[in-house]
Amino acid sequence: MFMFSSLFERQTAKQEGQHDVYVQHKGRVAEAGDRFVHVMAVTLDPQTGYKDGIIRCITSREGEYGVAGQLDRSALFKIKADSLDKFEITEELNIKNAGNVITKLKGEGGDFIGLEDPDIWRDEETGLMHIYFTMPVKLEEKDAQGDDIWNVHLGHAVGKDLDSLEMTEPTLLGTAEMNAKEVSIAPKNSEGFRYNLFESSDERDGETYSVVRVAIARDMGKPWELGEIAFHPAEHNIPWIAGHASPGPLLSKNFIDVGENKLLGIMNGCEANKHEGDKIIYGAFTAGLYIYDYEKGMIDWVSPEPLIWDTEASAKRPITFASQFVEGAKGEGTLYAHVDDSFVRAYTLNAEALKALLPEKK
């Protein structure tokens, strides 16, 4: 595979056709329009042929783009599609019991800033829809240094469809030291439970990293158990994912087979943080590949280079963040990602071309 010394060179190479693993679709799948500040994080319902789903809509933004401390207030809205290339944002998602759960999490004086980054999963045995989403809460109290305390939880709701969802207690409770968000659902292993993956956090030598951690799910509708960290950016010399890592969608064996009890997935990564005085500035967010052993709950490999870079991603602080994959026919599938936290794009992935980027099977 090609190796490039900078993200700019990688993007230029893709534009010149040196990689054939994906084709960026023309136009935008979903945009904010006049209703929202930004839109992002599409997830789709397989039971309706991926024609219905949810999108995160930013209703207000405070702070500097690409700098730690930026505050987005969000709501989840339904989307409908006439085709997989164009989604219409319709009405806000109504989840029963949400008020009670949120009140319990934030307490009397806390600040809940909205539901974020949803994922839809269908239970093939029961037919029920489970959705998972980020629930960030700023607590009323401060820490010893007088700074805000944030708890970021992985929330959950269940129902027959998008119109009958009811919120339960969170699947994973975050703490001041550990976030819980951005889930990736794994198949059951031979013991009958799932080693799901989620984005968490860890501090080392004064630097806070986003890490990929395992959650042990014995029941998809009840709280999960915390497992070990499966990928830590500080432990790998991979520049595109040196600061932050988040697990994206896992691809089926039917699309591409990477070995027994293993799946290929899309990993979202960010370069190492930069510091300018008191500011923590994020680097480029791009999407790459990973191989996950769902029997053992271990990430075997993360690609040395990213895979997707959108041609409209900003030159200064670009973001390409994948959230949904829809398998097609004849070794192709559609990947959805949001660009610069602003709009959603689709990309066609080619399974045969992807194989050339992967390590040899062991």
pLDDT < 50 stretches: 1-18
Percent of residues in helices: under 10%
Rg computed from alpha carbons, rounded to a whole number of angstroms: 19 Å
Number of helices: 3
**How far is the N terminus from the C terminus?**
19 Å
Structural class: mainly beta
Question: Would you count the extended β strands for me?
Answer: 23
The biggest beta sheet is recorded as: 5 strands, antiparallel
Shape: globular
Describe the structure.
This protein is mainly beta. The chain contains three helices and 23 strands. Strands 6, 7, 8, 9 and 10 form a five-stranded antiparallel sheet that branches. It starts with 6 loop residues before the first helix and ends in a 7-residue tail after the last helix. Mean pLDDT is 90; it is low at 1-18.
Keyword list:
362 residues, mainly beta, 5-stranded antiparallel β-sheet, 4-stranded antiparallel β-sheet, 3 helices, 23 strands, 47% strand, globular, disordered N terminus
